[in-house]
């Protein structure tokens, strides 16, 4: 699967699972381990776990199983490693706390702002 196909499958799967506020972040220029981060919000820990499971299963069904899936017993965050794409599904509280969009927003980095 190429990068756009992976992105489309993740986004479609998350939309079908009713994940909220799905954001695709291009990190190719600032990350050596991934080209895209996809961040979404689940409404509860059960919903977060379910969204993660749906993404994992979609890629297994496509013959491209994830390299890894990380979660805890009461997950407020599930991480799915698809190689060049990293998927984060979080509760609203975890997403606000970790603010991944701000962390990876290269437009707001000091070296970019000076240009």
From TrEMBL:
Say if the entry is tagged with keyword rRNA-binding: no
Q: Which UniProt keywords apply?
A: Cytoplasm, Repressor, Translation regulation
Gene3D superfamilies (UniProt xref):
Beta Polymerase, domain 2
Q: Where in the cell is it found?
A: Cytoplasm
Single Gene Ontology MF annotation: ribosomal large subunit binding
* NCBIfam families attached to this UniProt entry: rsfS_iojap_ybeB
Protein function? Functions as a ribosomal silencing factor. Interacts with ribosomal protein uL14 (rplN), blocking formation of intersubunit bridge B8. Prevents association of the 30S and 50S ribosomal subunits and the formation of functional ribosomes, thus repressing translation.
- Can you tell me which family this protein belongs to? Belongs to the Iojap/RsfS family.
Please report the name of this protein according to its UniProt entry.
Answer: Ribosomal silencing factor RsfS
Q: Which organism is it from?
A: Thiomicrorhabdus sediminis
